[in-house]
Amino acid sequence: ILVSCIGIIGQVGYALKPVAFNQQINAIIPNDNVDNLYIFYVLQSQTKQLERFKSATTIPILNKTKFSLVKIPLPPIDEQKQIAEILTKLDDRIEAEERKKEALGELFKTLLNELMTGKKRLRKEFVEKFEE
Questions:
Q1: pTM of this prediction exceeds 0.85
Q2: pLDDT tens, residue by residue, 40-54
Q3: Is 4 exposed, middle or buried (0-12, 13-18, 19+ CB in 10 A)?
Q4: N or C terminus of the chain with fewer C-beta within 10 Å?
């Protein structure tokens, strides 16, 4: 789990394979008693807590010492896994809905263009409903 600690404090990422990064990114590698995805989701909800610990400089920064002060609730591992599973399903659903919204937006733009350029015409019955 990677957390940005400079500029925009608290951006959280999840690496699926080994990665390299600089000192402005803090990495958390949970042990066997902690679920990786649970920590990922908890840290996403801890932005305000992380912001409280940042230094007030031209570019906000959160050092490792202050980062270690962040409190993370740790229920039993089984409960962590359940929470992470539910949140993953919600994220998947949100992503699917965003893709659907994007596709509908593109369809709208295409149809609007075709109507405005005369490539497509509305049926007479449809137009008459709006003329009443």
A1: no
A2: 999 998 888 888 878
A3: middle
A4: C
DSSP label at residue 13? E
Q: Is the dihedral of CA 34, 36, 42, 46 positive or negative?
A: positive
Strands, sheet with 2-4, edge to edge from the N-terminal-most edge strand: 12-13, 2-4, 25-27
Q: Is 124 helix (H, G, I), strand (E, B) or coil?
A: helix
Contact 21, 27 (CB under 8 A): yes
| Amino acid identity at 18 | P
Q: Where are the alpha helices (DSSP H) in 34-132?
A: 36-44, 47-53, 64-67, 77-116, 124-131
Measured CA distances, 109 to 76, 102, 112, 123, 130 (Å): 49, 11, 5, 19, 21
DSSP state of 25: E
* Long-range CB contacts for residues 115-119, cutoff 8 Å, separation at least 24: none
- pLDDT reading at 26 higher than 80: yes
